[in-house]
Amino acid sequence: MAVFQMDVKYLCLGYVCLMNAAGFLLMGVDKWKAKHKKWRIAEKTFFLLSILGGSLGTWVGMYVFRHKTKHWYFVLGMPLILSIQILIYSIL
Question: What b/e sequence results for 60-84 when a residue is b if at least 16 CB atoms lie within 10 Å of its CB, and e otherwise?
Fold first, then answer.
């Protein structure tokens, strides 16, 4: 039983890492698309990815790529989602 619990923890950790990497990379891709006047990624996609576990990567990507930092709903929303997720993870 303990082996199964460790496997689930690693699976969850892998999932969260994957989602955060995706959020970070998506910010970079959208910034590139903005600079090159290409078809953009919908803002709801960033929020969905963040809610699904990629909030830290998306938030860090905002500041690394200097993208979406003038939108109040990103500046407030991403840290809020991250805070809620940290609270949930600490309870579990």
Answer: bbbeebebbeeeeebeebbeebbee
Count of positions (residues) in the chain: 92
Range of the domain at 9: 2-91
Q: Do 50 and 80 contact (CB within 8 A), yes or no?
A: no
The single-letter DSSP state of residue 75 is: H
Cα torsion 64, 25, 33, 71: sign: negative
pLDDT digits (tens, 9 = 90+) for 15-28: 999 999 999 999 99
Q: How many domains does the chain have?
A: 1
pTM: 0.88
